[in-house]
Specification:
heterodimer, A: alpha/beta, 7-stranded mixed β-sheet, 12 helices, globular, B: 425 residues, Urease, subunit C, domain 1, TIM Barrel, 2 domains, 8-stranded mixed β-sheet, 20% strand, disordered N terminus
Chain lengths: 490, 425
Amino acid sequence: MRGLRAAHEGMFVMRRIICFMACAALSACATESGKSTAAPAKAATPPPAEVAPAAELYPSTYHVPSSAPTLIQHATVLTGTGARLEDADVLIVDGRIQSVGPNLTAPPQAHIIEGRGRWVTPGLIDVHSHLGAYPSPAVEANADGNELTSPSTANVWAEHSVWPQDPGFRTALAGGITTLQILPGSGNLFGGRSVVLKNVPSVTYQGMKFPGAPQGLKMACGENPKRVYGEKHQFPSTRMGNVAGYRAQWVEAKEYLREQQEYQKKLAAGDKDAKPPKRDLRLDTLAAVLKGDILVHMHCYRADEMATILDMSKEFGYHVTAFHHAVEAYKIADLLAENGVCAAMWADWWGFKMEAYDGIPENIAFVDAAPGGCAIVHSDSEEGIQRLNQEAGKAIAYGRRAGLDIPPERAIRWLTSNPAKALGLLERTGTLEPGKMGDLVVWNGSPFSVYALADYVLIDGAVRYDRSNPAVAPQSDFLLGQPAVDGVYP
Amino acid sequence: MSARNSLPAIVLALFPLTVAAAASSTVLIRNATVHTLGTPAVLEHTDLLIENGRIAGWGHDLKAPADAETIDAGGKPVTPGLFGGLGHLGLEEIGLEPSADDYALRLGSMRPEFDVTPAFNPQSIVLGVSRLGGITFAVLAPSSGPGHSGGAGGTIIAGQGSVAQLDGTVVPKVRALFIDVGGDANALSGGSRAAQFMLLQQAISEVHSPKELLPNDQRLLTPAGRRALQSFLDGAGPVVFDVDRASDIREVIAFANREKLHAVIKGATEAWRVAPELAAAHIPVILNPLDDLPESFDSVGATLENAARLNRAGVKIAFSLDAAQPHNMRKVRQTAGIAVAHGLPWEVALAALTRNPAEIFGVTAGHGSLERGRPADLVLWSGDPLEVTSLAERVFIAGHEQSMQSRQTLLRDRYLAKLRANAAR
């Protein structure tokens, strides 16, 4: 292999902010300035009656399978909340975490997992993947990640490119990935909507779709959009062109939103002749961002560009949920923390293009060290997603060398609770707190080791991967009859 | 959060960036676990003395010379310097910028005489970054590829490269030839992999029978190209075939046997399927242990057990990332650890980063193992050298201790100071 696509650097996703939980603050950001603050912006601007909410379109058909209660005993447990428990048990009942602590009692018929010598963590979450959209094999017929025909393709939805038979879903599962966000690529200023998936086998993507998860909007800074369109002698071809391009779209979106609001007002006033504004799929997405329903995930490498984007988000009244790739986040760790923006980063990848020249392996540790900082380890790669835990291990080591001592119980948040927060899902997954989804990984030792392997991966309480029993995680249809299946050939 | 606010002070050592090697100094490393990759394989609780640039001796309770710096290793491992794999070290300062990239010849004609070595830039900041990862030597490998914007491209013969030390020097008189085979190279051979062997065969017949040549305009090689190819047919160095599919590897084995080449297989995603044939032909394999997905139809047999299975069959293996882009070559150490997690013995994984690549490329005089009297090319590690949480603490190349500073550590220190100042605010 010649490594032509080791990572898909350049895809961004923006997430939406549906308000299961921590979204109140974000909704506030999305309220149009100068408008009434008495009522939440969302309530004041329901979508036109003929437009169904995104959550009801292409709906999830994933159902939590019934599973026996599972009790993991005597393990080292990293809860994802910052705690580390030794010789602790984890009990999952009806697909949810029921309790975590010492000497729990096994319910009848419970599946017991011996935890001595093992570590338990929440299921890992990757906020930046292109599995299914840039699947294996990476043949041209399957390259569905980047709609490079217009700098604004906010109308496209990544889920409509996802091929559920990508063998990479299974290898990611073996690496402990239970939830992942699939983003459009980064060739455009506005790449399109993302989708959050449960990492379960399915013939349809709807069968993987995380029920009720907010969508994201992928946006991109810097070299990629200006290169893609500059080479075609089209707009934008410069960074200033990029910013002008975003701003023009937001201006349109604001006007679109205003027309929708006018229409709703007329309807409310009993105007039977009121005509809805012409439907526009692109502006639907951008208006949903302005309303706080879609989370913004923005591919941005350079510190100065991230600062520009933060100013632009204030100009138009939306919130950037996370900067992805963020190789210079360490230069502005405090600014990001003050603005409540997460940075999704690689441990050590750098130099593959000019805007990645200043990458340092202490990036994650520095973002984590800023008071209120939100550091996330992401992959953007079908290889990297298989071992986010080891990426965190590297970041711990480099942080330690710089004098930042980061214990495992803190570092695990980069792969669990922080990405859950960035996906608007922290109330439902990302930690081992009672009531949350039974998404967890049982490791053969410390997950921050090069020798770490997932022994079991549970999603909603169901064992989806068992290292000792390959049949638990079926291979993709694509691999049937192919010589790839581990252990089939000597 | 208060604990997070108390960032420690950091020493802002201001060495000039360009000074990679300090003067040759006398250093006594006490109480190390020395992995010699020779005999004996491991020396526990051993003192190792470096004097006049050479490993002057090892043993217990060595006497420190008067001018020696003594390092207490506390049992930590010392290994030979690691191999950074095959790629564009010093040939690609930054991706996507043609003026900073020198790794590919795009003249549209087959030029085995193309040697990428003169383009090597010892000032590349990638060297310093990689040295801090414990890498001390790497292969400079040119790449083939289609032309930019429809212009002339390369051919399946990418050209020649050599072995660089990460102190910025090139090992003299060591050359390798690089050839692409398989579906990835179809665009370089008129659309069919079958033509790749046809073209190679024609090139060789031009070498063997210059007097029966086709008219000039149908020849593949220049006179210099014929001489260059002749030298590799005469055993001047290894011929590295970048190839993944099992059936293509079989064709390469047959071709190499026929032409008596010192063939090396690189990439080799499906090599495990032809492991016995590779072992019988004594052809070593350079692979990335992380390749476990069917990236193309040439690699549907990809598996994390490739390294372990090849080793069980008796094939000599070495590791290299897939990407020729050099910036993250330090990651090769992690790939070795992952191979261990998937069945490769730890000692073999370390050999695949040290002794084996030194043997494959003919640089065992300076690299790949530790021997008394030899120039010091070694690394003292904070822990298990294959572990992601371990870092290199001291690095010696060709007898000289290397600065542990890189452009990345300078950036780190500049912004750590800023972070501390903000935290104290």
